[in-house]
């Protein structure tokens, strides 16, 4: 076909628009006239519009939407500017806090309640080194709704609108601070997260008793603080709630400070102590070491004020006593005692604080807060009894560790109770090291006797824990406890090796005898520790204080190079375990810096 023919070729006529009925049915229209085939078949009227409406948003809609975005952005900038002005005003009023203000953790909020921790040039360095905080999370609005109105904290957060006390089928979201809203489903998820992942190392709440008040709109401020602390710790152990953990943490601290400023000092509740304790665990593993020390100190003091270390000093209920009988007993002061679950909750709160005190003091040989000679509180009951509320008579810690009878049958304690016993032994090892060493013959004999007694206690617990290790699914808490017992063996051996008892011939002979006696035990512990570390890596749940034990093992390995083939494998195993948990536990990040080649490692056992 020529170019002229192509130029004069008539254009194809445009077909008419599809009818409305075919458009509605989303079928192909044959555009027949006066009716299309589809309409003729179905008996519908075939209507064809000559002018179709223009697609897309209406005219001016995009401009209106852009104006709304600009208005919201300006409001957000104004709110941030007001917050910065309030912060600068607070800093101007308190330019240089005194030592008393720091020890009281700044009652009016201060820098300790801000999400970002401001470092000061006068801060006292600690042996953990100045570990910087993690990168701050992005500012996002986390849609959380509360299952019921929190009238108990409506005065604690000025500027927040709280709903009325009337329940509605669809509860409207309420705002906690900046953008925190909690839905009933998220409420249940956070509760379940705590009991699934945090309860194993912090079993201080009975699930049924907690759920009886957790969704009540009229719960107390202390209960609200405890709930927020539980959610903070649970969120740090999950992936879906990481975006809200810092906001939950900030709200928990703010409400705890509000309670302290509003209520008299003598009004202390168990929920308040538990909230500080859980918050301290979160700060130790996810926040700042200095702040953890302040929060842990507050929790320990509250526990001391409530005298939880001597709950059972005046009574010890028999095993045949029922819960109803136990709940109506009168104390020596004539006051009605709490029921068994409440008393057991207080016992567990104390023992959790006790274990944290012992294990954290092992890092740098810090002074231990709780004195074993003052403890008159029974050991925790088994989990089955605590969950069902069935009382069971337990022993005192002093009765369990009074003598090391290796032939005594296993007491079948819970994993939490085993952790308490091993924490006590670790405390005795630390106290044994801290006691001044004199060079007389009598004190040398006493030192050897004390050293052998502690070593026998460690051997007894290791034997019992090995019996539990034969179970197919080993409890991660028992694995942590077994690792702590083996670390105690290394500490005892290193103490004998690095602390000679004197220069006299008899003292030198005693030192050599002890060294030869415990060297094989140390070698066995060095061989077992990598197996325990590998076992910990196989658990989804890991005790948050595990990096402390790994650091102590690494220090022993560095101070005893070439002890044997097993000792050469110990350090790589520990490094691998710390690196695997660096994103889950901030202690691992700091400890990797301490044991790295660029750091000057100091002896943990000297």
In words, what does this structure look like?
The protein has 606 residues and is mainly alpha-helical. Among the domains are: 13-46, CD2-Gal4, CATH 4.10.240; 310-315 and 337-594, no CATH class. Helices cover 55% and strands 0% of the residues. The protein is built from 22 helices and no strands. The protein is elongated. The model is unreliable at 95-178, 316-337 and 598-606 (pLDDT under 50).
Q: How many β-strand runs?
A: 0
Quaternary structure annotation = single chain
SSE order, one letter for each helix or strand: HHHHHHHHHHHHHHHHHHHHHH
Number of helices: 22
State the end-to-end CA separation. 102 Å
- Assess the beta-strand content as a share of residues: under 5%
Estimated structural class: mainly alpha
- Rounded mean pLDDT is 75
Overall outline: elongated
What is the CA-atom radius of gyration, in angstroms?
Answer: 33 Å
What portion of residues is helical?
Answer: 40-55%
Poorly predicted runs: 95-178, 316-337, 598-606
